[in-house]
Amino acid sequence: MADTPYQSAAAIRAAVTDLEDEGLFPDALIQSLVAEFEEVAEEYRGVAFTTRSVTAEYHVCIGGPVRLYHPKLRSVSSVAVTYSPAGSATTLVSSQYTVDNENGIVVYGFPSGATTAVSYVHGFDSPPNVIIRACRQYVRACAKSDVSGVSRDVVAQSSDGFYTRYSTPDRSMGRPTGYVEVDRLLNSAPQYRTPLVA
Question: Are residues 59 and 112 in the same domain?
């Protein structure tokens, strides 16, 4: 299953008239900024806002179920277990394990010290409206800053003291992008990240 971008370049242009000039804002630029925003949004909120396919390896420290790196599990296509460093992988059949889709957990008695490779599809059917809007705002802000040379939102200014303060990225302070409106929208989306999914 191919990953679907949050927004196509055409959809961004239709919604953001500032980016209509294809000479200044070519499709390749818009598409790269959409992909960049997807990485930021998914890392910050801890979930894929579109469907994504992945094969990931997990080292089982404590026997039992395995929590996958991604919540909102849609399907598991393969689970293979290697019981020792020198051993060969054993592929489980689907009747041997169960899946907690919402929390992204494969339930099976994985032994301590085993290595497990899981192929699966995860994420939302499509991005929520708040994420689509945040994506458009991010693409607009970044694309226009590349042209204008003004890279950040001004959050404080004093003309007498020649003081200007710009918003900068700081995830720990709720500013994953440093763009005020984009960060407001991202912070209004659900948080899926847990201490177990680093």
Answer: yes
